[in-house]
Specification:
Blueprint: E1 9-14, H1 18-32, E2 46-51, E3 81-87, H2 89-102, E4 104-112, E5 117-124
Antiparallel strand pairs: 1-2, 1-3, 3-5, 4-5
Length: about 120
């Protein structure tokens, strides 16, 4: 992790439950800190979370990990889910690496701009 880097990331998840969305979010917390909000249990078909933390202290946020770069061990999904990552190239790369360490990941597509990247991943249970 690059010290003092602002890693804003938006995550969109489809194809799973709120519990699946929270499992993915919690997997990213050691790197990105706590999200602005956690996906709720409202029966939605699309779940989103936004991380806007300054990672200068290993995760930042308000109690969301902060102690290292290791993904959550034992994160479980009930079904395959599609995750879209949007943010700076560094944020998207770190999120991809973190999710790949915790889940079986298939890259479904990517788009790059000058300042932002988008990557779509399929996570398997």
């Amino acid at each position: 992790m690059t010290s003092g880097t602002h890693l804003a990331l938006t995550l969109t998840l489809t194809g799973g439950s709120a519990a699946d969305a929270r499992a993915v979010v919690h997997t990213l917390e050691p790197v990105f800190g706590s999200p602005d909000t956690l996906p709720g249990d409202d029966g939605a078909t699309v779940y989103t979370a936004t991380f806007g933390s300054d990672t200068s202290n290993g995760g930042g946020g308000d109690g969301g990990g902060g102690g290292g770069d290791k993904p959550s061990a034992g994160a479980k999904l009930s079904t395959s889910v599609t995750v879209t990552l949007q943010g700076s190239p560094e944020a998207v790369r770190q999120a991809d690496e973190t999710l790949s360490a915790a889940f079986k990941v298939h890259e479904e597509g990517a788009a790059s701009g000058d300042q932002e990247q988008e990557r779509e991943l399929r996570l398997e249970p």
